[in-house]
Amino acid sequence: MSAETQTPATRGEWPLYEVFVRGKRGLNHVHVGSLHAADDQMAIHHARDVYTRRNEGVSLWVVRSSSITASSPDEKDPMFAPSGDKVYRHPTFYDIPDDVPHM
């Protein structure tokens, strides 16, 4: 097979995926690691095999790393400082009923 007819998967250039697992007792998905896979379905199957071997998860998310956009830790102050002067965003102004779970 020539280099022109090879796909990224046949050349061993599978994309990198980030894996998130929601545990049985957890409310949120938590980043547990990364893996390479040829496509989304393979990524789900590999994530299941690698990160939930002991039945510790109830839900998986796999996301191509190239699709994630993140802020830089160096931008922490300019990115998050503006919320400090908006006191209405703090939960101290709201009454939360006793029957509301997980707050």
Automatic annotation (TrEMBL):
Record keywords, A-Z: Oxidoreductase
Gene3D superfamilies per UniProt: Phenylacetic acid degradation B (3.10.20.520)
Top-level taxon: Bacteria
Classification via InterPro entries: PaaB, PaaB_sf
EC number: 1.14.13.149
GO molecular function, one term: phenylacetyl-CoA 1,2-epoxidase activity
Pfam families: PaaB
Oxidoreductase in keyword set: yes
Protein name in the entry: 1,2-phenylacetyl-CoA epoxidase subunit B
Taxonomic source organism: Brevibacterium aurantiacum
